[in-house]
Backbone:
């Protein structure tokens, strides 16, 4: 079931002949609502009767409801299999329904997310989130897509778009214009092996080698949080992927230049 929301008072569900239904079908799923065309509000009874196993939403829509907890407060949702199991799949708005040159990749990524038996790779987590457009552009420009599509396992400290925006003026443009520099910086955000937040806390204060040969990271536990190199806070941790683990950070890590 796809739910379109722009606040608790503006919630509708996708029926047949909708972009959302098309994406669900292309990803190997089945739309739970087939009684009407287009997008319509439906009653709590109809939601329960549809019995969706998964609820699909766009990022801003879920945010407008106050997250998963707010979604579960909507009439009928908590009584569905999806609500009982908290099976909510969230994808960036334009990535899901933009129907652009990215549609084939979006369909593949949605396939991973809709089917529990499939573990999504790190790139799927990045592409469907909506906060990593700059990081993804850098991965592509650096030729590291194949690396992050590989078996791994890796630990990726992923800076958000806001983190890249905080770089000094000209720094990002300089990185994007130099493949070697870009590869060095991105490799500095990668560890060879999957380290959960708990494992990193156990090694607090000990340098950890990155995939950048000249660089190590200092990960330190501060109360219940993790800081990387004293400048980047881990704002979300332990997002599991088929080929590693993702930790989201609020600052870009820049390695020291070799002497």
Residues:
């Amino acid at each position: 079931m796809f739910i379109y929301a722009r606040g608790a008072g503006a919630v509708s569900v996708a029926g047949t002949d909708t972009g959302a239904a098309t994406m669900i079908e292309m990803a190997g799923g089945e739309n739970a609502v087939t009684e009407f065309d287009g997008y319509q509000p439906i009653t709590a009874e109809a939601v329960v009767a549809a019995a969706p196993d998964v609820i699909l939403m766009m990022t801003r829509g879920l945010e407008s409801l106050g997250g998963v907890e707010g979604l579960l407060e909507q009439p009928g949702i908590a009584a569905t299999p999806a609500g009982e199991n908290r099976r909510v799949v969230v994808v960036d708005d334009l990535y899901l329904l933009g129907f652009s040159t990215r549609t084939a990749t979006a369909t593949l990524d949605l396939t991973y997310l809709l089917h529990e038996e499939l573990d999504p790779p790190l790139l799927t987590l990045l592409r469907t989130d909506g906060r990593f457009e700059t990081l993804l552009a850098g991965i592509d420009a650096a030729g590291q897509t194949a690396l992050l599509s590989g078996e791994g396992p890796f630990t990726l400290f992923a800076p958000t778009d806001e983190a890249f925006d905080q770089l000094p003026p000209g720094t990002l443009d300089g990185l994007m214009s130099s493949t070697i520099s870009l590869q060095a910086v991105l490799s500095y955000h990668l560890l060879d092996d999957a380290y959960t937040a708990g494992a990193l806390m156990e090694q607090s204060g000990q340098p950890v080698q990155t995939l950048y040969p000249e660089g190590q990271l200092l990960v330190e536990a501060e109360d219940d949080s993790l800081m990387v190199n004293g400048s980047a806070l881990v704002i979300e941790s332990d997002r599991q992927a088929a080929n590693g683990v993702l930790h989201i950070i609020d600052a870009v890590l820049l390695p020291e230049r070799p002497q």
User: Anything to note?
Assistant: The two ends are 56 Å apart (CA to CA). The chain is about 35% helix and 20% strand. The domain at 124-249 is CATH 2.30.180.10 (FAS1 domain). The chain has a mean pLDDT of 95.
